[in-house]
Inverse folding.
Protein backbone atom coordinates (compact mmCIF):
# COMPACT_ATOMS: atom_id res chain seq x y z
CA UNK A 1 0.00 0.00 0.00
CA UNK A 2 1.35 3.41 -0.93
CA UNK A 3 2.28 5.74 1.92
CA UNK A 4 -0.10 8.66 2.43
CA UNK A 5 1.15 12.02 1.17
CA UNK A 6 2.85 14.22 3.79
CA UNK A 7 0.64 16.68 5.58
CA UNK A 8 0.70 20.12 3.93
CA UNK A 9 1.88 23.26 5.67
CA UNK A 10 -0.69 25.89 6.63
CA UNK A 11 0.32 29.38 5.43
CA UNK A 12 -1.51 32.43 6.73
CA UNK A 13 -2.62 35.40 4.64
CA UNK A 14 -0.69 37.95 6.70
CA UNK A 15 -1.26 41.65 6.03
CA UNK A 16 -3.19 41.78 2.72
CA UNK A 17 -1.66 45.14 1.79
CA UNK A 18 1.82 43.68 2.05
CA UNK A 19 3.88 41.21 0.04
CA UNK A 20 2.65 38.02 1.72
CA UNK A 21 0.32 37.00 -1.08
CA UNK A 22 2.80 37.55 -3.89
CA UNK A 23 5.70 35.76 -2.18
CA UNK A 24 3.37 32.83 -1.48
CA UNK A 25 2.35 32.73 -5.14
CA UNK A 26 6.01 32.86 -6.16
CA UNK A 27 6.82 30.04 -3.73
CA UNK A 28 4.18 27.92 -5.49
CA UNK A 29 5.60 28.88 -8.89
CA UNK A 30 8.97 27.56 -7.66
CA UNK A 31 7.47 24.31 -6.31
CA UNK A 32 9.79 22.24 -8.51
CA UNK A 33 12.73 23.52 -6.43
CA UNK A 34 11.90 21.37 -3.44
CA UNK A 35 9.20 23.60 -1.97
CA UNK A 36 7.05 21.39 0.27
CA UNK A 37 3.26 21.25 -0.31
CA UNK A 38 1.36 24.04 1.41
CA UNK A 39 -2.00 25.76 1.31
CA UNK A 40 -2.85 29.39 1.84
CA UNK A 41 -5.60 30.60 4.14
CA UNK A 42 -6.63 33.63 2.09
CA UNK A 43 -9.17 35.00 -0.37
CA UNK A 44 -8.91 33.18 -3.74
CA UNK A 45 -10.18 36.17 -5.73
CA UNK A 46 -7.60 38.45 -4.14
CA UNK A 47 -4.81 36.05 -5.07
CA UNK A 48 -6.08 35.69 -8.64
CA UNK A 49 -6.13 39.47 -9.06
CA UNK A 50 -2.68 39.76 -7.53
CA UNK A 51 -1.23 37.11 -9.85
CA UNK A 52 -2.70 38.82 -12.91
CA UNK A 53 -1.38 42.19 -11.73
CA UNK A 54 2.12 40.71 -11.46
CA UNK A 55 1.86 38.93 -14.84
CA UNK A 56 1.82 35.38 -13.49
CA UNK A 57 -0.37 32.51 -14.66
CA UNK A 58 -1.49 30.78 -11.48
CA UNK A 59 -4.43 28.37 -11.34
CA UNK A 60 -6.18 28.54 -7.96
CA UNK A 61 -7.72 25.49 -6.33
CA UNK A 62 -10.37 26.32 -3.70
CA UNK A 63 -10.16 23.82 -0.88
CA UNK A 64 -12.99 22.45 1.16
CA UNK A 65 -10.54 21.02 3.70
CA UNK A 66 -6.75 21.01 4.25
CA UNK A 67 -6.57 17.33 3.28
CA UNK A 68 -7.19 18.28 -0.36
CA UNK A 69 -4.05 20.42 -0.57
CA UNK A 70 -1.37 17.78 -1.12
CA UNK A 71 -3.17 16.28 -4.12
CA UNK A 72 -3.85 19.68 -5.67
CA UNK A 73 -0.42 21.26 -5.11
CA UNK A 74 1.31 20.04 -8.26
CA UNK A 75 -1.27 21.57 -10.59
CA UNK A 76 -2.74 24.54 -8.71
CA UNK A 77 -2.17 26.82 -5.75
CA UNK A 78 -4.34 25.41 -2.94
CA UNK A 79 -6.32 28.09 -1.10
CA UNK A 80 -8.60 27.61 1.87
CA UNK A 81 -11.02 30.57 1.60
CA UNK A 82 -10.94 32.99 4.50
CA UNK A 83 -14.61 33.81 3.87
CA UNK A 84 -14.40 37.48 2.83
CA UNK A 85 -12.52 39.84 0.54
CA UNK A 86 -9.95 42.11 2.20
CA UNK A 87 -10.48 45.85 1.81
CA UNK A 88 -6.78 46.74 1.49
CA UNK A 89 -5.01 47.45 -1.78
CA UNK A 90 -1.29 46.74 -2.21
CA UNK A 91 0.67 49.18 -0.07
CA UNK A 92 -2.45 50.64 1.54
CA UNK A 93 -3.43 48.76 4.72
CA UNK A 94 -6.95 48.97 6.08
CA UNK A 95 -7.66 48.22 9.75
CA UNK A 96 -11.02 46.76 8.66
CA UNK A 97 -9.03 43.69 7.54
CA UNK A 98 -7.76 42.96 11.07
CA UNK A 99 -10.44 40.32 11.82
CA UNK A 100 -9.50 38.43 8.63
CA UNK A 101 -5.79 38.57 9.45
CA UNK A 102 -6.44 37.18 12.93
CA UNK A 103 -8.94 34.61 11.61
CA UNK A 104 -6.31 33.21 9.23
CA UNK A 105 -3.91 32.74 12.14
CA UNK A 106 -6.64 31.11 14.26
CA UNK A 107 -7.60 28.71 11.48
CA UNK A 108 -4.00 27.75 10.73
CA UNK A 109 -3.26 27.02 14.39
CA UNK A 110 -6.46 24.99 14.67
CA UNK A 111 -5.53 22.97 11.57
CA UNK A 112 -2.06 22.19 12.91
CA UNK A 113 -3.32 21.26 16.36
CA UNK A 114 -5.99 19.04 14.82
CA UNK A 115 -3.40 17.15 12.78
CA UNK A 116 -4.68 18.47 9.45
CA UNK A 117 -1.48 20.43 8.73
CA UNK A 118 2.13 19.65 9.58
CA UNK A 119 3.15 23.12 10.71
CA UNK A 120 2.24 26.78 10.68
CA UNK A 121 4.03 29.29 8.43
CA UNK A 122 2.94 32.88 8.97
CA UNK A 123 3.20 35.71 6.50
CA UNK A 124 4.14 39.14 7.89
CA UNK A 125 1.46 41.18 9.65
CA UNK A 126 1.11 44.93 10.14
CA UNK A 127 0.86 45.42 13.88
CA UNK A 128 -0.16 49.08 13.59
CA UNK A 129 -3.31 48.17 11.63
CA UNK A 130 -4.11 45.43 14.12
CA UNK A 131 -3.59 47.76 17.09
CA UNK A 132 -5.96 50.32 15.58
CA UNK A 133 -8.57 47.56 15.35
CA UNK A 134 -8.14 46.65 19.02
CA UNK A 135 -5.54 43.86 18.84
CA UNK A 136 -3.95 43.80 22.30
CA UNK A 137 -0.91 41.58 21.78
CA UNK A 138 2.60 42.95 21.10
CA UNK A 139 2.89 40.73 18.03
CA UNK A 140 2.49 37.37 16.35
CA UNK A 141 4.55 35.47 18.88
CA UNK A 142 2.63 36.62 21.92
CA UNK A 143 -0.70 35.88 20.24
CA UNK A 144 0.45 32.39 19.29
CA UNK A 145 1.51 31.82 22.90
CA UNK A 146 -2.00 32.68 24.05
CA UNK A 147 -3.51 30.31 21.49
CA UNK A 148 -1.13 27.60 22.71
CA UNK A 149 -2.33 28.03 26.29
CA UNK A 150 -0.73 26.47 29.33
CA UNK A 151 1.33 29.50 30.31
CA UNK A 152 3.73 29.09 27.39
CA UNK A 153 6.60 31.62 27.24
CA UNK A 154 7.97 31.23 23.72
CA UNK A 155 11.46 32.06 22.53
CA UNK A 156 12.41 33.57 19.17
CA UNK A 157 15.13 32.05 17.01
CA UNK A 158 16.33 33.50 13.73
CA UNK A 159 17.90 30.78 11.61
CA UNK A 160 19.82 30.65 8.35
CA UNK A 161 22.41 28.37 6.81
CA UNK A 162 25.15 30.60 8.20
CA UNK A 163 23.92 31.40 11.72
CA UNK A 164 21.25 30.78 14.35
CA UNK A 165 20.57 33.48 16.93
CA UNK A 166 18.25 33.67 19.93
CA UNK A 167 17.58 37.13 21.42
CA UNK A 168 16.76 37.07 25.15
CA UNK A 169 14.93 40.41 24.99
CA UNK A 170 13.13 41.28 21.80
CA UNK A 171 10.97 44.29 20.96
CA UNK A 172 12.15 46.69 23.64
CA UNK A 173 14.10 49.92 23.55
CA UNK A 174 17.75 49.40 24.38
CA UNK A 175 17.22 51.11 27.73
CA UNK A 176 14.31 48.80 28.58
CA UNK A 177 16.19 45.73 27.36
CA UNK A 178 19.03 46.46 29.78
CA UNK A 179 16.62 47.21 32.62
CA UNK A 180 14.65 44.00 32.14
CA UNK A 181 17.50 41.59 31.37
CA UNK A 182 17.63 38.90 34.04
CA UNK A 183 19.43 35.66 34.70
CA UNK A 184 16.10 33.82 34.68
CA UNK A 185 15.32 35.11 31.17
CA UNK A 186 18.75 34.05 29.90
CA UNK A 187 18.38 30.59 31.42
CA UNK A 188 14.85 30.18 30.02
CA UNK A 189 15.96 31.13 26.50
CA UNK A 190 19.00 28.87 26.71
CA UNK A 191 17.08 25.82 27.93
CA UNK A 192 14.38 26.21 25.25
CA UNK A 193 17.00 26.76 22.53
CA UNK A 194 18.99 23.70 23.61
CA UNK A 195 15.87 21.49 23.49
CA UNK A 196 14.91 22.83 20.05
CA UNK A 197 18.39 22.31 18.62
CA UNK A 198 18.24 18.68 19.72
CA UNK A 199 14.67 17.92 18.65
CA UNK A 200 14.06 20.11 15.61
CA UNK A 201 17.56 20.58 14.19
CA UNK A 202 18.90 17.07 14.94
CA UNK A 203 21.99 18.35 16.76
CA UNK A 204 22.91 15.71 19.32
CA UNK A 205 25.18 17.86 21.49
CA UNK A 206 24.50 21.54 20.76
CA UNK A 207 26.89 24.27 21.79
CA UNK A 208 25.39 27.67 22.65
CA UNK A 209 27.63 30.75 22.63
CA UNK A 210 26.39 33.47 24.98
CA UNK A 211 27.05 37.08 24.03
CA UNK A 212 27.98 39.60 26.68
CA UNK A 213 25.73 42.59 27.13
CA UNK A 214 28.42 45.24 27.26
CA UNK A 215 31.32 45.92 24.90
CA UNK A 216 34.05 43.30 25.43
CA UNK A 217 31.62 41.47 27.76
CA UNK A 218 32.10 44.25 30.30
CA UNK A 219 35.93 44.34 30.30
CA UNK A 220 36.11 42.78 33.76
CA UNK A 221 33.50 45.18 35.10
CA UNK A 222 35.08 48.41 33.92
CA UNK A 223 32.41 48.75 31.18
CA UNK A 224 29.49 47.65 33.36
CA UNK A 225 28.85 44.87 35.85
CA UNK A 226 25.86 43.26 34.09
CA UNK A 227 28.01 40.56 32.52
CA UNK A 228 29.50 39.68 35.93
CA UNK A 229 26.29 39.95 37.94
CA UNK A 230 23.69 38.64 35.44
CA UNK A 231 25.16 36.89 32.42
CA UNK A 232 27.96 34.85 33.99
CA UNK A 233 25.73 33.30 36.71
CA UNK A 234 23.14 32.46 34.02
CA UNK A 235 25.79 30.66 31.95
CA UNK A 236 26.82 28.71 35.05
CA UNK A 237 23.20 27.76 35.73
CA UNK A 238 22.70 26.62 32.12
CA UNK A 239 25.76 24.41 32.43
CA UNK A 240 24.43 23.03 35.70
CA UNK A 241 21.26 22.07 33.81
CA UNK A 242 23.21 20.18 31.17
CA UNK A 243 23.28 22.90 28.49
CA UNK A 244 26.68 23.37 26.86
CA UNK A 245 26.60 27.14 27.18
CA UNK A 246 29.85 29.06 26.79
CA UNK A 247 30.71 32.67 27.48
CA UNK A 248 29.92 35.45 27.89
CA UNK A 249 31.87 36.44 24.81
CA UNK A 250 32.53 39.86 23.34
CA UNK A 251 29.80 40.23 20.74
CA UNK A 252 32.05 42.02 18.27
CA UNK A 253 34.15 38.86 17.77
CA UNK A 254 31.39 36.23 17.85
CA UNK A 255 30.08 36.33 14.32
CA UNK A 256 33.00 35.95 11.92
CA UNK A 257 33.24 32.62 10.11
CA UNK A 258 35.87 31.01 12.34
CA UNK A 259 33.97 31.92 15.52
CA UNK A 260 30.65 30.65 14.11
CA UNK A 261 32.23 27.26 13.44
CA UNK A 262 32.53 26.76 17.18
CA UNK A 263 28.85 26.88 18.15
CA UNK A 264 25.37 25.92 16.95
CA UNK A 265 23.45 28.99 18.14
CA UNK A 266 24.26 32.37 19.65
CA UNK A 267 22.27 33.54 22.68
CA UNK A 268 22.14 37.32 22.44
CA UNK A 269 21.04 39.85 25.03
CA UNK A 270 18.97 42.19 22.87
CA UNK A 271 17.26 42.44 19.50
CA UNK A 272 19.86 44.14 17.32
CA UNK A 273 22.76 42.17 18.80
CA UNK A 274 21.10 39.09 17.30
CA UNK A 275 19.45 40.37 14.16
CA UNK A 276 22.17 42.58 12.70
CA UNK A 277 24.65 39.72 12.15
CA UNK A 278 21.92 37.32 10.97
CA UNK A 279 20.52 39.77 8.43
CA UNK A 280 23.98 40.85 7.31
CA UNK A 281 25.00 37.26 6.62
CA UNK A 282 21.77 36.12 4.96
CA UNK A 283 19.13 38.82 4.57
CA UNK A 284 16.99 36.90 2.10
CA UNK A 285 17.30 33.43 3.62
CA UNK A 286 16.69 34.09 7.32
CA UNK A 287 13.77 32.37 9.02
CA UNK A 288 11.96 33.36 12.20
CA UNK A 289 11.24 30.24 14.30
CA UNK A 290 9.15 30.33 17.46
CA UNK A 291 10.53 27.88 20.01
CA UNK A 292 8.64 26.51 22.98
CA UNK A 293 5.19 26.23 21.38
CA UNK A 294 3.37 22.87 21.22
CA UNK A 295 3.28 23.24 17.42
CA UNK A 296 5.79 24.32 14.77
CA UNK A 297 5.76 27.91 13.62
CA UNK A 298 8.13 29.55 11.17
CA UNK A 299 7.93 32.85 9.32
CA UNK A 300 9.91 34.90 6.82
CA UNK A 301 12.39 37.16 8.55
CA UNK A 302 11.12 40.37 6.98
CA UNK A 303 8.15 42.69 7.15
CA UNK A 304 5.23 43.65 4.95
CA UNK A 305 7.30 45.79 2.50
CA UNK A 306 4.44 48.14 1.62
CA UNK A 307 6.75 50.16 -0.64
CA UNK A 308 7.05 47.32 -3.17
CA UNK A 309 3.79 45.44 -2.57
CA UNK A 310 1.83 44.47 -5.68
CA UNK A 311 4.75 45.00 -8.06
CA UNK A 312 5.88 41.38 -8.26
CA UNK A 313 9.47 42.19 -7.32
CA UNK A 314 9.49 40.96 -3.71
CA UNK A 315 11.82 38.00 -3.29
CA UNK A 316 10.23 34.83 -1.90
CA UNK A 317 13.51 33.35 -0.63
CA UNK A 318 12.82 33.83 3.07
CA UNK A 319 9.30 32.35 2.79
CA UNK A 320 10.66 29.38 0.83
CA UNK A 321 13.31 28.90 3.52
CA UNK A 322 10.57 29.10 6.18
CA UNK A 323 8.52 26.46 4.34
CA UNK A 324 11.50 24.12 3.97
CA UNK A 325 12.53 24.50 7.60
CA UNK A 326 8.97 23.93 8.85
CA UNK A 327 8.74 20.74 6.80
CA UNK A 328 12.13 19.53 8.07
CA UNK A 329 11.12 20.20 11.67
CA UNK A 330 7.82 18.37 11.16
CA UNK A 331 9.59 15.33 9.69
CA UNK A 332 12.00 15.19 12.62
CA UNK A 333 9.20 15.40 15.16
CA UNK A 334 7.20 12.75 13.36
CA UNK A 335 10.20 10.41 13.36
CA UNK A 336 10.70 10.62 17.14
Amino acid sequence: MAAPPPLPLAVTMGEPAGIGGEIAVQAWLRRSEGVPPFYLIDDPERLSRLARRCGWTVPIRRLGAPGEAAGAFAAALPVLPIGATPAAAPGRPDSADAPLVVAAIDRAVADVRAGAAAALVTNPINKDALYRAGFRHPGHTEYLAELAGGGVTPVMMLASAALRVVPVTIHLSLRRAIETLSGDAIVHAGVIADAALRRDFAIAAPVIAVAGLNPHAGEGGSLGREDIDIVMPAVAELRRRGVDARGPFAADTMFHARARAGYDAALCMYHDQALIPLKTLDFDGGVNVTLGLPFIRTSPDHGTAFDIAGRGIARPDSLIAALRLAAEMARRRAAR
